Amino acid sequence: MIQGIFQYEFLQNAFLTGILIGFLAPLLGVFIVVRRLSLIADALSHVTLAGIAASLLLEKYFVVLSGLNPLYLGMVFSVGGSLFIEKLRGVYKHYQELAIPIILSGGIGLGVIFISLADGFNTDLYSYLFGSVSAVSRTDLWVIFAISIVVIVTVILLYKELFLLSFDEEHAKASGIAAKSIHFIFIIMVALVIAASMRIVGIMLVSSLMTLPVAASIRIAKGFKQTIFLSIIFGEIAVLGGLFSSYYLDLAPGGTIVMIAVAILVFTIIYKKLMIKSQVSQGGAAG
Amino acid sequence: MKSQSVIEINNLSYRYEKDTVLENINVTVPFRSFLAIVGPNGSGKSTLLKLILGLLKPQKGEIRLFGQEINKFKDWQQIGYVSQKANSFNTGFPATVFEVVSSGLTKKLGLFRFFKKEHTLKVHEALEAVGMRKFTNRNIGELSGGQQQRVFIARALVSEPELLILDEPTVGVDAENVNSFYHMLADLNKQRGITLLLVTHDIGTISDKVTHVACLNKHLHFHGETSEFEKHQSEGMSEFYGTDVHLLSHQHDHGGVLK
Predict the structure, then answer these.
(1) Annotated domain spans of chain B
(2) How many Cβ atoms sit within 10 Å of the Cβ of residue B122?
(3) Residue B249 has what pLDDT?
(4) How far is Cα B253 from Cα B255, in angstroms, rounded to an integer?
(5) Which of B106, B120, B152, B153 to mutate to test the interface with A (most CBs of A within 10 A)?
(6) Among all residues of chain B, which has the CA nearest to that of A221?
(7) Residue B95 and residue A177: Cβ atoms within 8 Å?
(8) Do B90 and A34 touch (CB under 8 A)?
(9) CB B3 within 8 Å of CB B67
(10) Closest CA relative to residue B97, chosen from B139, B130, B134, B145
(11) A140-144, B39-43, B166-170: which range is least confident on average?
(12) In angstroms, rounded to a whole number, what is the distance separating the alpha carbons of residues A162 and A177?
């Protein structure tokens, strides 16, 4: 496969995109998980599906649009969905989590209608649902590269504010941080990364790339920066390992990536258990 | 020129719809004093704090902070606030004590500014002040309630406020550690010269650590130096909760004894 990467452009695209996604998804995932917003990723990925289905539908009926990359409309829907979630969170102040199932089911409902109008499933749609190594185009790669630059620069510039907002929203607001605007910027970044990730891992599994590496690293990391660092390492291992094995074993890359992430998670849980045990027994011996 | 008092409240009243929560409050908090406002639940303590912090607007009367009318007051960096909710944060949050305390500098640093070496020193100093220096690299969730509360105080101290306001700071602190906790606060007041305003419903442990006590129950029933308060306390709490004494004698140095 290493040879293949030099030979085939589609493999280069898939790997480079994978490396970017393996970095971005866990990076934002840390903030999502600690703010207990894990399900937002799920809701937005379903909205992205509606956008992609809409794009495929348009492509079918309007020949002019046949070259349109579904990624764009997916992104538009995803960002739109994120804004809608924020609006709903404002409407249901005491039931903020309600926004998530509303958007999630709305997204899937809309997606299913578009799919049925476009005469049902085809291979293209299947690759969006579960990810594909061969579907990533050079344009996709460039778009995702641009998203990566924007997201990384924004996170670096707003790191202290994002940290404070995640750790203690109340205090952030009380101390006069522009909490609303920063949250808004954050949620748009999440929407963009979700739309960018779906080519590789697929819509159904995008959220797992944002949560599983974080769930693993939170068990063993010390401090917030280390949590981010380990999450990214785990994310990269899962994506690259998943792409390699799916290529050789001819599996859907999305599923393989997620299963590797799950394996890492299980490993860290066991590791932590063993650490605590050895500490206890050491403490016992010393006492 | 610095004014005589950090907080000055004159004839302040506040009501939520029909309920009058605060009526005709007069308080003066002198520089470098340690004032405890004591009152039962629903006595208007939180409302008074919100008014002082500018989260609510006074309906009647005036509040002056550092000699300036609260509406015109801009220098909020001078005021550190440790909320009661500080101890209900997500204890599983993966942040070290260092990271939590440095987050107290977020506003002071401003957007797009990065943490530098001098800020690290400030964080260490703040942790030293609350006796938590050796926990710098521990995860916040591994600490006890009292230790976490100290970390939150350090977070407020790191931006070097003149006045520190604490809302029920001992809620998450174990009974046996409450005393040393108040001791630490008294040290901040005496050695670092920080003016402290503390709101609590627990009067027993605190009276010997603070310099001034005020009792609140819609009216501010008492406001004076600690020794004066103790005299009244011996005459019976009920009497003093029932009467309408306003003692506003602050000409004395807070270390001195009022006779």
Answers:
(1) 5-90+163-242
(2) 19
(3) 34
(4) 5
(5) B106
(6) B94
(7) no
(8) yes
(9) yes
(10) B139
(11) B39-43
(12) 10
pLDDT value at residue A186: 93
Give me Rg for the CA atoms of chain A.
20
Q: Are B2 and B68 in contact (CB under 8 A)?
A: no
Indicate if the alpha-carbon torsion angle A133, A137, A138, A140 is positive or negative: negative
Question: CB A187: neighbour CB atoms within 10 A?
Answer: 22
> Average pLDDT of B7-34?
88
Residue ranges of chain A whose pLDDT lies below 70: 1-6, 120-123, 283-287
**Chain B: which residues have CB within 8 Å of chain A?**
53, 55, 76, 81, 83, 85-86, 89-90, 92-96, 98-100, 102-103, 105-107, 109, 111-112, 115, 137, 139
Give me the domains of chain A, ranges plus CATH numbers. Answer: 2-209 (1.10.3470.10)
**pLDDT confidence of residue B254:** 38
List the B60-65 sheet strands across, edge first. B19-30, B5-16, B60-65, B68-69
Backbone angles phi, psi at B240, to 5 degrees: -75, -25
How far apart are the C-alpha atoms of B6 and A151, rounded to whole Å?
Answer: 44
Q: How far apart are the first and last CA of chain A?
A: 55
Tell me yes or no: is domain B5-90+163-242 CATH 3.40.50.1010. no
Q: How confident is the model at residue B252 (pLDDT cuts 50, 70, 90)?
A: very low
Whether residue A160 and residue B109 make contact (CB cut-off 8 A), yes or no, is yes
Dist CA B249 CA B233 (whole Å): 18
Percent of chain B with pLDDT over 90: 13
Q: What pLDDT is stored for residue B87 in this prediction?
A: 55
Instruction: Measure in Å the smallest separation between the Cα of B91 and chain A Cα atoms.
Output: 10
Mean pLDDT of chain B: 79
Closest alpha carbon to A194 in A110, A36, A80: A80
Contact A227 B94 (CB under 8 A): yes
